[in-house]
Amino acid sequence: MAAVAAVAAAGAALRARILQVSSKVNSSWQPASSFSSSSVPTVKLFIDGKFIESKSDKWIDIHNPATNEVIGRVPQSTKAEMDAAVSSCKRTFPAWADTSILSRQQVLLRYQQLIKENLKEIARLITLEQGKTLADAEGDVFRGLQVVEHACSVTSLILGETMPSITKDMDLYSYRLPLGVCAGITPFNFPAMIPLWMFPMAMVCGNTFLMKPSERVPGATMLLAKLFQDAGAPDGTLNIIHGQHGAVNFICDHPDIKAISFVGSNQAGEYIFERGSRHGKRVQANMGAKNHGVVMPDANKENTLNQLVGAAFGAAGQRCMALSTAILVGEAKKWLPELVERAKKLRVNAGDQPGADLGPLITPEAKERVCNLIDSGTKEGASILLDGRSIKVKGYENGNFVGPTIISNVKPNMTCYKEEIFGPVLVVLETDTLDEAIKIVNDNPYGNGTAIFTTNGATARKYSHLVDVGQVGVNVPIPVPLPMFSFTGSRASFRGDTNFYGKQGIQFYTQLKTITSQWKEEDASLSSPAVVMPTMGR
Ligand code: NAD
């Protein structure tokens, strides 16, 4: 009984501490209608282990995408605040890097437990700021949690190499060591998963970390930072700044930042890759996508249509791995009317409403852009089989909703095919053969993900082998690898040499040091050893 009471008391204390993160990252964060304009909650900076109010005079409104009410404000951090955050990371780096790897692992082990205990709370916050359904928001946290669990295996992942007796009495071995201060810049669509791709992996290796979350959805990162502190991460090892281009330029240029992890659009990613690399930093950049699902006529029709609908419209299509393009091969084109019927059944609603299958888009501008791309399809000769542009959601008339939309008769030269739409829109192409389908996919510049639906092993093997895309699903519509593998988007979807998480994640956040050592037994006994000139010979 006493043990149960103690656990309950600990839970209540944790909740109370979380509430201090910012007045608002938790249950006190209410829609703006409950506040006067002066009481709109502000997102704090996290510097040296403290959640502090920015002194900035430039603030960005955060909106609930289902209502467009202002629910918070996030600062554009001042130069002094950003400098203080990097100094904090730099100051704490030597001690954190010297902390036993087992102690760092223990912090991560406690962290994964705290994330599990607070998963629903984090998800609720994601739905409020980002709009996705609560089920999708929980998935967002869960996929990030898996990376934290993977980071707990650091003791095996970070091992160096050894080679004994490379010559007489001489051994060669290597260590993987942290880089120093690393930084992360994240997008709006996965407010928990993507920050969790970054700082846990970097920090378990001994780096300290500066996060700049998406200015549209900063809440989940703040709560995750509080939980990380509660798990035992020392003050100053993780710092958080906010802002847009100014903060991004600051990160790219700062001489004390050694590596940048970026996830977001191609426009920002290419820019950050170039600018960060120019300043001598390691940069890994996961960017945009156009993912094709190739449907063979021998596929299991029921499964395939269900998978296509879920992967194209789930999360309102705001997923870099959304299956946004279908290629129907041969007789599979006859399935189109049934695909439309299934898509029609999806329920569009605010993400926190029971039964919602998809929520709103992130901003009115995103909705306008998606609608314009649908328009472009009609203008360029495609057919709109299902049109979600004029959808009205009862009770949420001001939200950024677009219903499931299917555009058929699409050709590769059309704008709606060439652009990443990032909304609940499936564009459909048709081909007579698998070879033609493969050519279309390989001619597209992006290489994030693709899937083939077939019951023929040889067809699946041929497609997986010939398609030039980094992540391939066989009867799996969204083939995001588990974190013991790496996220291996390729071509225009990725810049850099080393991918996120998996073994490659550890490689990105570490550098090798090799040690060649010679210990002769007679060294200890000889008083004056002979001079030996080192040569490159054997
Ligand atoms: P975004 O590029 O607009 O923003 C990402 C980050 O970059 C934000 O922190 C933002 O402040 C900053 N930023 C935005 N524009 C910038 C600019 N011009 N210069 C410098 N910094 C800038 O991306 P988004 O709209 O938040 O996210 C959606 C995009 O992210 C889509 O293209 C999607 O495919 C991509 N994405 C890719 C992956 C992946 O793993 N490949 C995962 C998730 C999202």
UniProtKB/TrEMBL annotation:
Keyword GTP-binding: no
Protein name: methylmalonate-semialdehyde dehydrogenase (CoA acylating)
CDD domains in the cross-refs: ALDH_F6_MMSDH
InterPro entries the UniProt entry points to: Ald_DH/histidinol_DH, Ald_DH_C, Ald_DH_CS_CYS, Ald_DH_N, Aldehyde_DH_dom, MeMal-semiAld_DH
Aldehyde dehydrogenase domain span: 51-515
Keyword terms: NAD, Oxidoreductase
Organism: Rangifer tarandus platyrhynchus
EC number of this enzyme: 1.2.1.27
Family under the similarity heading: Belongs to the aldehyde dehydrogenase family.
Catalytic activity: 2-methyl-3-oxopropanoate + NAD(+) + CoA + H2O = propanoyl-CoA + hydrogencarbonate + NADH + H(+); 3-oxopropanoate + NAD(+) + CoA + H2O = hydrogencarbonate + acetyl-CoA + NADH + H(+)
Domain of life: Eukaryota
Gene3D superfamilies named in the record: Aldehyde Dehydrogenase, Chain A, domain 1, Aldehyde Dehydrogenase, Chain A, domain 2
Keyword Oxidoreductase in annotation: yes
